[in-house]
Amino acid sequence: MKNQYDYLNDAEIDLSIYENEYVSEEEVYRMSKSNHKNRGLKKKAAVIGIAAALAVGTGVAAAEGHIERIIRSFTTGHNMFVQVDPNAPHDLPKEVVGLLYDKSGNVITAATDDDFKNMYDKNGNLLTQEQIREIFDEALGDNADIRDEKDAETSEWNTIEEAQAVAKFDIKYPKYIPEGFSFNRAYTYKNDDGSISGYYMTLEYTNSDGKDINIMERLLNDETAFTMSTDSELKERVINGRKTIIDDGRNADFETEDSVSVSIHTKGNVSEDELIKITESIK
């Protein structure tokens, strides 16, 4: 089952206090930072894609109280994971209402994930995803800076030891990786001024077929904690004594005893049993 990020080009937002702190394409798919009302947006949000803009304007289901969309929810301590009804519409940000239309020329005020593939301008022209992104970008103004991931500059390292020298936490890495996969690189996104916060790191494992497994990590505090909303199946397991959330048999999320959030994203490249083995091997 696809969720809103599948339909919207794997979009992402990070609303941490770190100015324009980018996160990986995989984390874009996995995490949409909730726009908590009790936390001011201290910096302009660095956004990649349309779903991110939607999150800026409306917040995810759990944060903004769209209770009717929620099927179930879990927490690993700092982070929350919410399974929502894929057929329930999202309310569009008020700044966007009046700029998007359906095929019949009606103003769109709320939309399901599929609706984003069939939006029109006031003249009845079908909009591309890039055009919709531009509309969100202009309408949200200072609240969001929407851009493609290709425009974001990264820093990468060939070994985990090299990445560890930059990270502000102990990087967690698996002792088990499925046959055919090997470590390729560690990377993170730079701030606009070229600096690296050190609070985020992604480990990438690839195989000869070009498939990858990504392990995304962040140092947890009240500002970097997130809420992830998805319409795929969520279930809770205890692995290595840690509460672990399994998403659609493809992804696993947990928090370590030293306050590191770990998200394993397989893109369906491995079985759920192998996903569990990877998770079990991260001590």
**In order across it, which strands form the biggest sheet?**
8-9-10-11-16-15-14-13
Largest sheet: 8 strands, antiparallel
Query: Would you tell me the overall average pLDDT?
Result: 75
- Helix proportion of residues, in percent? 10-25%
Number of domains: 2
Protein architecture, described:
There is one protein chain. By secondary structure, the chain is α+β, with helices and mostly antiparallel strands. The protein has two domains: about 5-150, no CATH class; about 155-280, no CATH class. Helix content is about 15%, strand content about 30%. It contains seven helices and 16 strands. It has helices at about 5, 25-30, 50-60, 60-65, 130-140, 160-165, 270-280, and strands spanning about 10-15, 45-50, 70-75, 80-85, 90, 110, 145, 155, 180-190, 200-205, 210-220, 225-230, 235-240, 240-245, 250-255, 260-265. It has an eight-stranded antiparallel sheet. It has a three-stranded mixed sheet with strand order 1-2-7. Helix 3 packs parallel to helix 5. Residues about 1-65 have low confidence and may be disordered.
Q: Key features?
A:
2 domains, single chain, 8-stranded antiparallel β-sheet, 3-stranded mixed β-sheet, 28% strand, 283 residues
Give the arrangement of secondary structure elements:
Blueprint: H1 4-7, E1 12-14, H2 25-30, E2 45-48, H3 50-58, H4 61-64, E3 70-75, E4 80-84, E5 90-91, E6 110-111, H5 129-140, E7 144-146, E8 154-157, H6 160-164, E9 182-189, E10 200-206, E11 212-219, E12 227-230, E13 234-239, E14 242-247, E15 251-255, E16 260-265, H7 272-280
Parallel strand pairs: 2-7, 4-12
Antiparallel strand pairs: 1-2, 3-4, 5-6, 8-9, 9-10, 10-11, 11-16, 13-14, 14-15, 15-16
